[in-house]
Request: fold
Amino acid sequence: MAVRPARPDDLPGFLALAAEVEHWFGPMVAEPGFHRAVRKCVDRGLATVAEGDGEGLLGGLLFGTDGTTPPRHHLHWLVVADRARGTGLGRALVEDALRRHVRAPAVVEVVTFGPDHPGAVTSGARVFYERLGFTPAEAAEPGPEGGSRQVYRRHLG
Reply:
């Protein structure tokens, strides 16, 4: 497995990953807004992918910052292919993004499933972020499918 900055020709791989999780996050594959978001992050050097030997993309991450002081960064989107979950790939993507884009002191946020969302347990997202040092914070706006969401936050330095 190799983690690297995403390239413009990775869009089909991002869409394949999105197709695996649309049941939790709502439509993405056919949404021009999602395509624009991926391209924008790729163009700004804020998209990261993981690929396996001849397996295509196994994971992808879209990152951002809002320019506040101290800096507040955002994990906008993180998906690991079903066949690669539990292998450390998600951790590798997040650690790569933090190493590449974050300088302490800083805050990193991610919005994930709320505690009552069916995907909270099935996906393992909440436990995943907690293991990376993120802590649950305030509730966020519901997702496009109507499910609950919650902000997770990690303070660095």
Remarks:
- The beta strands are 2-5, 47-52, 56-65, 72-80, 106-113, 135-140, 149-156.
- Residues 13 and 59 are 9 Å apart (CA to CA).
